[in-house]
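Dear all,

This email documents one entry for the complex benchmark we are building for the journal club exercise. For each entry we list the sequence lines for every component of the assembly. Then comes the predicted three-dimensional structure of the complex as a token string, followed by one or two observations. Please use this as the template for your own entries, and keep the labels exactly as they appear.
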Amino acid sequence: MYNESSIRNQLIVSKTYNNLTQDILHPIETKSGKLWWIAFIIAIIATLLGIACIIYTIITGIGVWGLNRTINWAWDITNFVWWIGIGHAGTLISAVLLLFRQKWRLSINRSAEAMTIFAVIQAGLFPIIHMGRPWDAYWVFPIPNQLGTLWPNFNSPLLWDVFAISTYFSVSLIFWFIGLIPDFAMIRDHTKNPIKKKIYGILSFGWSGKAKHWYMFEEISLILAGLCTPLVFSVHTIVSFDFATSIIKGWHSTIFPPYFVAGAIFSGFAMVQTILGVARKVLHLESYITIKHIENMNIIIMVTGGIVTLAYISEFIMSWYSGNIFEDFTYLSSGAATGPFSWAFWVLIICNILIPQLLWFKKIRKNFLWSYVISIFINIGMWFERFNIIVLNLSHDYLPSSWTGFLPTFVDIGIFIGTIGLFFVLYLLYARTFPIIAQAELKTILKSNVSK
Amino acid sequence: MNKSKDEFKNQLSSFFNQKISRRDFLKIMGFTTAAVTLSACKGPVIRSIPYVIKPERIIPGIPTYYATTMFDGFDLCSVLIKTREGRPIKIESNMMSKYFNITSARIQASLLSLYDDERLKDPYINNKKVSWNDIDEYVIKRLKYISQNGKKIIILSSSLPSPSTKQLINDFSKVYKNTQLVIYDAFSYSSILDATKEILGIRAIPFYEINKIKLIVSFDADFLGDWSPQNMQKDYATNRKPGINMMRHIQIESNMSLSGANADTRISLKPSEIKKILIEVFHILNGKNSQNKIANNIASEIKNKGSDAVVLADGSKEIYALSLIINLKIKSKALSYKKFLFSKESNNIIFNQFINDLKIGNVGALLLYNVNPVYSFPSILKLENYLKKLDLSISFAMKEDETSKLIKVFAPIPHWLESWGDTHPMTGIYTLIQPTIQSLFNTRQFQNSLIIWKNKIHSINNPANNTNNPANNTNNPANNTNNPADISVGYKYYNNNYINNYYDYLRNFWEKNILSKSNIKSFNIALFNGFIHTNEIHTNKCYYNKNYLNSIINNIDNNIDNFELRLYTKTSIGDGTQANNPWLQELPDPITRISWDNYLTISLKDAQKLGIKNWNTATGAINSNYVDIIVNGLKIINIPIFIQPGQAEGSVGLSLGYGHTKGKVATHSSGINAYLIYKNFNLIHYNVIIKKTEGIHEFASIQLQNTMVGRDDIIAKETDLNTFLNFTKEKWNKEEKITSSKGELPLEKISLWKENDNNTGHHFNISIDLNACIGCGTCVIACNVENNVPVVGKNEIRNSRDMYWLRIDRYYSTKESFKTLHKKNISEPKIYNYLLKPENNPKIRFQPIMCQHCNNAPCETVCPVAATSHGKQGQNMMTYNRCVGTRYCANNCPYKVRRFNWFNYVENKKFDFHMNNDLGKMVLNPDVVIRTRGVMEKCSMCIQMTQETILKAKKENRIIKDGEFNTACSKACPTGAIYFGDINDDKSEIKQQLKNNRTYKLLDFLGTRPNVTYQVKIRNLNK
Amino acid sequence: MYQNNIIYGLYDDDNMLLQGINYLKKKKISIYEVYTPFPIHGLNEILSLKKNINLSKLAFIYGLIGTIIGCLITWYTMNYQQNIGGKPNLWFLNLPSYIPIIFEITIFCSANFICITYFICCKLFPCAKNTNPDPRTTDDKFMIEIRTNKTNIEELITVLKNSGAIEISVK
């Protein structure tokens, strides 16, 4: 049994076990509201736009994007890293905070994990469609073939990505699913609709809540959390290797792994704020997602944002102090601040460094609306961080003769909008069909609160 | 039928009724499976025609080479044609020939015009397809009538340095009285020819032996471009080998030309001022004093060198004449009195007479051979009206052009690769043109037509005779029914009515007149070589008089306001003959790096005065304003304008050869027809008014950053001759070193692991001498041809998606450097305000960049599917089949040489160039695969060529000699700037190159260990 | 006739449940199963549940297998003498390149296999029939299942009642 420390405030006030059950059941049992449908239709349209753009790309060629001979990656990999970064918060909340016994995570971990899964799906899309020949994408897996000696190149950071992303996706998925099983069982037992009963019956794997199962459930959760924690750090480290192990100035930077991980958590928590800000209102979860949660997340955003700022400063100083003339045009340099991409540079600085500083004020930190607005700015800023790293560094490379600029085409933008659409389609469906709060686990901490 | 049906039924029923054993079942299964599988294996139908009798010399897969002469009316070169399975796929220079043996970008690319899908495929009369017999009948009737009526029959041709054709026209004129040959070159060399005639007494272009001198002073003469048909590039480069004897080059010019870009000292002046300086120099050399500092400097340099100097000039007849007089005065060793060039015969006077004749209706028939006057002579008098009125107009052209719509008879001619012919380009040289492919279409050579019309004049009214004639429209010597006895009888050529085709005529002519001049007695040997050298020399005396000189000197244009316009020809398009050639249209200009366009070049200061801007869009692509110009009362609107560093203030430049209205490829380019301004064949026009107008022009430029941004001693290194001679390498070509426990070690000596073995077998290296590279772009086209590099069109070039495997970077110098700026206490980011912009009259460095074939290639490590890996012979290899197109390799390439197939460039309507039609695809090299979309491609060090050499030597069981290994670029380079060879061969030239002090590797501090090396450019500043 | 009686006791609070179990243990009544809506800490000690399988150790072993697989894959596939970027061909020398992948395979194997093991141990699989006797046990109620072959079960019921059960049913 948890022993709640008396100093801490109660997380969830005046809810009984049954309240919780009913609250979880509510969206599943009732019909969707108007707002949900509007959101869903917009998301579907965006998804269709994205799908159309992807099909157009695959039929015509990567040339429909705004890339050129010098900037061979732009929106594709920017989006990839952005989505992967967003994905990090979910696993971090459920795994790392579990290990640290942070109980406030319980009301948000399910949704955060769902966000992880859906974000990783979006992220995983880009490495495939950015290929010139996506139909041959399976060649990156070490599949035996008739040539015998034809294998992928294990030296390539892109291949590390393949393994990291697929491992991350599969482990996140099972971690999420194991947590979902008792909640599915709850829905199965309490829903009145026989079809739903059947479906949730299948999904609940015959869970009965036996003492021994709970015992093993706790253990496996802990093991998976233990595995997920290094995994979550490794994934973004490996993503950063895409850049860090290369030879391009501005990419080739030893600071990238920790800085990318911090940036990922930074953006991930911002996205959790953004998503839960909406979910809280729409699904009436005010009593579960309290100002305490928001404040805690804001503090994490502040800490990771601080790390990111520090990394920016050190990158800037390194490029200046090294006296290396090639580094004068990296994404954090005076060259970038004044060059053709200066607008992107300043968007990054404003969104990622200046605006998060508002969180130092307790009033802002404890304000839903302010937190929500700031989280959106951080999302934008973190997208630009990846854009700047990729495009700015590539655009001004070693030989000035190959310097170019970049402008996205409607296909670039369409695909990005499409992934946002698909993300929300998945999330909206999730919100109506899945237990959006880990009720079984949350019930463990409800008791102590109620009894007090 | 019924029986068999029953039989089958019975069998079937018995089959089903019987008990099938396991063995039977397996048998049946095995058969059906195999049958089904086989039927599924039906491949696509490919149309191919097998050889019924295989030609003796053609072995599939083995190329055959033929010597011939490239001549399209503008360029001329002794070449070797590489053919595969009977089709020409590559043009290489014929190094056996002493002169005219250097290919240029245009010559390399002229191959493609053979496979131009827009070529005329049949003869036409009044837009109706007819047979050659119809043409003959139609033409001879009218010719006869016209010649009897005393009207002129004019053969309007571009320069025709063909002795046999001249003879033939002579013969022809004996039959058809009043026939006259009028030479009309779109880009006229008449002023040079006239000047030479007046000074040296011969109407030819003087031959300059610039390898004999130490100073070359050029007054606006782009001698590395089209100033002279002579190939000066090679002598220029050899004579400029860094050392005490390195030739110095001073260029005084208004436009930034290729020669100016290579000059040691370049002075940019307006054309009128150039003329003044030239006259001043002349005066100083004659002992007078001058106040002009520039003239004094130049004159003193010329005086110092004496006969070791040469003065070249261009612009007008007077200027040219003056330069000749100066050369005579200083007794320049370069000016040869014994040899002259005859490849250009432009004659403005005769042409003007013809125009006059045309006006007054004296011309009855006009035979247009290889000219397009409606496009290139757009005078006020409207040629169109006169051409329409002609009784007979015949177009001998390969394809429809601007003139075609006014022509009644189309007698399409074959490409020079399908033709017979000869040329006499200079004293002591005769070359032969032989077909290397059977005529692709129903075409007939111009000369054949003349012969037939000449011979048939009497038979035309008697149709019965026609049937007796052998096939006329063939060049094939096999059809030759010629009796050798006829020749031995000793007919005069013009009476030889038995010769019915041009091959016999040519052979006869050569055997009679040409071969006797040399020690080669067999026509076939001459044909094999492609040329003969004779010992002819000229013995002329110079006889210019003082009065003439005075008239030149006093003819100074005074007090000129407004702008001065200097017309020029571009390296890629030249006079516009090959404007429909996508390779050439796409080839970026060596100086401006813009393709698919021409534009008015203007200096920055003038542009600022007029409020004209060039600016970069977000993609980096260059946009410009439009201007209207008024020249000699003629207004031309909407000319794109390009700010050209080095352009003389007060002057503008415009290139000829663009603005075609016919031809798919030519019209894809949006250029302006500068021939509108080329009035009286004047290159220089004064009093040009320029006005900015509305609208934005979109340029397709391959290079968007023009300076090295302060990286001058890292990328394309340069030093001056004095520093090079007097200081050690440390000072001007410092080697990157790493401090280790064993002291300072060069980069190559340090590695975390044991390096791969590069010392056994072949290991190829390319060495590029930046001092010899003149930026002409020949290698770029050669690479395109050899490696099937696609043409991507203007939009894609504008999107920075060129596909060049080999590019020539051009860098302008900046006024300031890091050193000078740091001294002035200017620091980042302001420092880059100075370094990003070129200076007003910049020095230029060219740097050819192809894949550097790094031994530790960054691209290889990052490929997830190992599609790119390192070869044993030093190549960085690309496995197209394996590539999935992540483009990581291109990102990670510090040299940015990898090219991605953004689209399918083959059989794609969006890229309607030669790869989109069956005919155009015939130019593709079968040894190199066509890349599909979505894969990365890049320079392969022409692995197909090296492998061929290795296999050949292996078959012959011998060691490969140095020089046998070649790449397309090293073979094509006119100046020998690109060396290719095996560094594991101790005696090889490349090994010596590596030991050269000037050698360095590009960006080697990254640890990539490239297999391409560069050699520092040396500028002879005469300090 | 031998009769097997199943008696269910329902509690509405986890503390009551724990007290009840202690009470029953004192009465030496063996508890067959407990159904709860959420994990209750200390339950396993009270019930003295024994692990027949050590998931943590197993996870480690699975991880180890993953490491070995990773090493073998990289060694086998990159053993081919191909010069990629001048990197050494010897597996050991080029190991740094392979560490990320070996690590990921380790995690992959460990996490996935341990989950499968968990499902097998708990007999959880899609479409499996649920065995909780009362649906309320997944909401807010807690249930004790006692199996006995005694014929007289009245005594047991009273003991259960005394232990705080709010509802008792017999099957």
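Observations: Chain B touches chain A through 65 residues (CB under 8 Å). Confidence is low (pLDDT under 50) at residues 462-495 of chain B.
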